[in-house]
Amino acid sequence: MDVSFLGGPLPQRGVGVVAPFDFALDRELWRWVPDDVSLHLTRTPYVPVEVSLDLARLVSEHETLHEAVRTLNAIAPEVVAYACTSGSFVGGIAGERAMCEAMTRAGAVPSLTTSGALLDALTELGVSRVALVTPYTVSVTRSLEEYVAEAGVAVTGCAYMGLTRHIWKVPYREVSAMAHKAVRGDAQALFISCTNLPTYDVIPQLEAELRIPVISANQVTMWAALRRLGTRAVGPYQALIDPAARSGPALPDVPRLPDEEQQQEGWT
């Protein structure tokens, strides 16, 4: 059949994505992307280290990022995103900014990271008090809390899973359960950390249940990258993406548990 009348594929705008070697959620990233944008993914080299602060530092070394971004140069993306939360917050705000500068030098295009996008998203939503959910160990979780606090945002509650591998296998029901544990008191939003943790389908449900914006690592990364292109991410009823979804009844006050009940494993 002659298909020449179709005129070829639609022109595409490119977003380069550098992901850690164990990133398993390529398809989740694509779900936020409009039809006229393509993602071009590359991965950092494998290192035999479990998810930890050491791994976060190894996968975010400037030389590693430089080489990863260079692999994308031939494709000429308009923006490059480093899709790793822990790797981009482990060095604090100064470290995150230095990473962006290193990637920009390597690719000569604007660059961003997941953790930088998180702070931009909190600013966009007017959030000064946030609850956190992470799949990490306590030490990695503490590093995220310090990063957020450095930006002047108070952490009102936190729940963590203590995982060091196979984070992409966590089911939505566990993400939801941890979210309900983390959100207490006067949290204005919930952030679900780690680009390897599935979140796309659970965000609208949690926003309806918790009555606050719910943002996730992959969501803020794609939102920020697409905003750099002057376009919008797509997604069903997500407060960050759709301003119309940001209004809703306030979350009622939740009674605080006695101190000894708050210190159990997975709670901070």
How would you describe what is shown here?
This protein is an alpha/beta fold. Helices cover 38% and strands 15% of the residues. It has 11 helices and 8 strands. α9 links the parallel β7 and β8 (214-216). α3 runs parallel beside α5. The radius of gyration is 19 Å and the shape is globular. 43% of the residues are buried.
Main attributes of the structure:
268 residues; alpha/beta; four-stranded parallel sheet; 38% helix; globular; disordered C terminus
Write the layout of secondary structure elements.
Elements: E1 13-19, H1 26-30, E2 37-43, H2 53-58, H3 62-70, E3 79-82, H4 85-89, H5 92-107, E4 111-113, H6 114-124, E5 129-134, H7 138-150, E6 154-160, H8 172-182, E7 189-192, H9 202-210, E8 214-216, H10 217-228, H11 259-262
Helix pairs in contact: 3-5, 6-10
Task: Explain briefly what this protein structure is.
This protein is α/β, with parallel strands linked by helices. The protein is 38% helix and 15% strand.
Helix content: 25-40%
Q: Report the β-strand fraction as a percent range.
A: 15-25%
Overall mean pLDDT? 90
The computed structural class is alpha/beta
Order of strands in the sheet with the most strands? 2-1-3-4
Helix and strand succession? EHEHHEHHEHEHEHEHEHH
> In whole angstroms, how far apart are the ends?
63 Å
Number of strands: 8
Characterize the overall form: globular
**How many DSSP helices?**
11
User: How would a textbook summarize the main sheet?
Assistant: 4 strands, parallel
Radius of gyration: 19 Å
Low-confidence stretches: 249-268
Query: Assembly type of the shown chains?
Result: single chain
